[in-house]
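Revision sheet: structure tokens.
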Amino acid sequence: LSWLEQRSAGEFAFKVRLASLDDLLGLARMQLEITVTAPASLQAGTQFTLRLQPAESEGYQLDLDGTLADSAITLSATAAKAWHWPEQSKVALGQIDTRALMEQIEGFDRNRQDIDLVTFLAGAVPIFDLPDHRSEITLGELGIGDELLSDIGLSLSTGGGRVDIAALKASGPVSDIQGAGKVIADAQGWRVDFRAGITASSAGESL
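Predicted:
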């Protein structure tokens, strides 16, 4: 099954394929593949395939591989029960430029509109209710403007109205960063607690 969807940047191509027609005809648990291709109008290329298949016992295994904004990406997630959000995942990315990534996100938005910052800040603080999930994220390089961070690692968990960052590490041109924190959202608003330490990358140097 293939189709095109018109988005802000142009037509995104979607393709869904059953890995085994025999499984479907035999009413067995089947494997599903979904491929997404971004339009050529975007400067950075995006094409990835999502595979969904039964786990060895109950639940399912979800795997994704391809490119996101010209960066290699792999994702692996498992769920103990069918039709439930995965309880844990691992994500690995190569090199990401935030400007290219934002272009991809904005290009996929069907009805992209510029957000007025004053109006946004004056509105009510959104309250989120997140599923229970643990994730390990690694990123080779992250470009933010003219700055470049490398060897980034992030361990986080979500549940209800909170996000807990158990560990964050990254390396800059002259320093290393380690940190941990949490974000809690409820009817009283958002509370953010984050603590970080910065050390010189090379012995004998100071910041």
